[in-house]
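hey can u check if this looks right to u? its 793 residues, i copy pasted from the old doc so theres a chance i mangled smth
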Amino acid sequence: MLSFRALTTTLALAVATPVLAQTTSGDSRRSENEPSSGNTNVELREIDVVVVTARRREEDIRDVPGTISAVTAEQLEAKGPIAGSGDLLSTVPGVRFNDVASENLAEVSIRGSGTQRATGADSGVGLFVNGAYAGSSTLGGRNFKTLDYFDLERVEVFEGPQGALYGRNSEFGVVNIILAKPKFQNSGYVRNMWTFDLDQNRLAGVMNQVLSDEVAVRVGAEHYNQTGGFYYDPNHDKYYDSSNGFTARGQIRYRSGPLDVTLLVDGQDLELPTFVNSLLVPGGGVNAQIPRGYQQSRFILPHTGRDGMQQKVKRTMLMATYELNDNWTIESTTMATDWTSRQQYAAAIDVATAIEMRQQGQIGIWPYGQVMTDVRDRTLYQDLHFTGKTSDGSLSWIVGAEGLFQRDDYQLLVASSPCPFTLAGSFCSGTPIEPVCVRPLPTSINCPTPFPLIYGTDARTKQRISSYAGYASLQYAIGDFTLVGEGRFANDSKRATQGITALYTDIYTKVPTTYTFNASEPAYTFTASYKVPSATNTLVYAKVGTGYRAGGVNNGTFNAAAPNPFVATYDNENTIGYEAGVKTNITSNVFVRLSGYLSRTTDAITSINDGCTVTNACGVGGQFFTVNGGTIEAHGIEASVDSRFRIGAGLLSTNLSAATQKAEFEKVPTSATGLPIQGTPVAQIPDWTYSAMIDYRQPITQNVNGFINVSYSGQRGGGQDTVTVATPFIPLEDFDIFGARAGVNFDNVQVAAFVRNFTDQEVEVLKFFQAGYPLSSRYNKPRTVGLSVTYNW
């Protein structure tokens, strides 16, 4: 395992290369009239030309002076089924998907952005679909939806600050998913996929139909049906990691002369996997409530409460391009979305286990603990920009404006015990109308009548966000030397209102408060590049750019006795980044890239606790809120090599990549406690990440060919959480995950088998500690094996 990692790293660094597009199964810029799948021909070609729109204009990815990746649908399909956003990004160095077994909580990090400085704020990575902003600051808004990786064309990742062209929350980079749009050629596919270990079936179909010379439509859907899984709740006969429901999309495209318009309508209604933690409490009295300890099964976890997650999405997009003349084009993107995300998670044990703990003389855990979240986000996004160039192409420009309007409603219900939880007491639960009292032991004191405490809290937050921006780009080429300048000026405003009532009542435990935030922010990028006049097509570049993460509003209550008194708002976080790199062809079928970067983030957005407890001057428990917590410095090197070789009658395509990075809190204010410790690492930034993909295709007969694809991803080092006085350094788990997919194409039919996590490696994706001792862990998904059958036309 270590020798494979060493080989991957040595090869990637030796060829000195930053990431571009992996090339495993076909040219992503094929003609619209050429079939996109089911091709049984095995051809030896140069490394594919991939056209991207990362700079809001179409251009060859090899000509973009910056670290950019484009992963095509064919490359993703070659690896196996897409089960989450992490599958889209696993081969991109410097990019990491923080998968914590819940779509609501998972986040993308690029370079030094981290994912745990303030999970209640916006992401530091811009999430876009077809060039429209798809993220939000509410729960579930820092990750893509399942709908976004159905029937996609490619995924573009542009690293480093992108605040000039993309704006808010793009300070560390941008991930832009490009969905497949209608093409003017009849085509489609039907695919059935079985994952045996999960008892999961995914049936998908897409049809692209030409209605006339000017009109084409594309419709598709995918249905999930799962009856098994790995993580099981016997009390409810339900698997925590199940997926059921559907996604669907319909599009119509009109293309006539200079006008090209596409209308897209899609949606999803899915029950998705939710997270579950296994208790790993050691004995010896280290935990006051469970002094004898408790080791819970990784897979069988009975709960009394409800666990689950549901996401519903409705979306409409209108994308239009009009060529005013040979040198001027106007483009418009409009998007309206309405999505809801609901999640339920229960106490870590059930009543039977809690009674068993009492029989052992342990207080245990209250078994009726229940948390429920309900989020609704409504977003309207509009971008309009002009692109132009001089007749000789030496000077080109972009001028544009965008607006974003979001309305978020967030409800958080937390059920707590309405009675003091003591060793001699009973378990109190239920509702005020139907109270429940369970005596765990014959000697247990019965619940007091009436229950003296509230049953929990019901917090409701309404947030309103408006963002306006104007931006421009100017590019000037002098022979093989090119200069690019980009700039943006944006204004962001937020308004949030929150009130908290006692559960099952309309009695406020926190009177509603309303806070507002408003800030204007400029951003810029300057890039210089030189195309070395040689057969290697070597591009050398250097750039400097800025970006910002939008500030916002806290929801809480001011307590003068708190060691860190509550503040209502926090300011924007700002990053300036420097990057240099080279892209070159060693031969016509080997492309290599290398980039290095350095960034500095000021006013880093950080979540802290006000320091209150029931035993100090506050007299109440602590509350978390967000502040600007210091300065972060990050640096790293990213490398990748793409190659394609003829081996006998077959074709071998490979991609190897590696990245090393480091991000630390360089300066921390002394005005508040609870902030990160100076000199400690930013959370969720591994020291090293690696990936490899090897794809081989071999003709068997004139109409039949076989293929095999092996993929690998790994990481080393880094810390899980932000390190504070109260939170020690918790190392991230090192891992090496392998996958494989193999099969045959018979004319238009493909049959393939796949395996994920081939070595069945166990990884603790999240570890929880209490008073320095283990409390619980959350794990990855074990090995899965499956089969897919696809018919293409």
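The chain has a mean pLDDT of 88.
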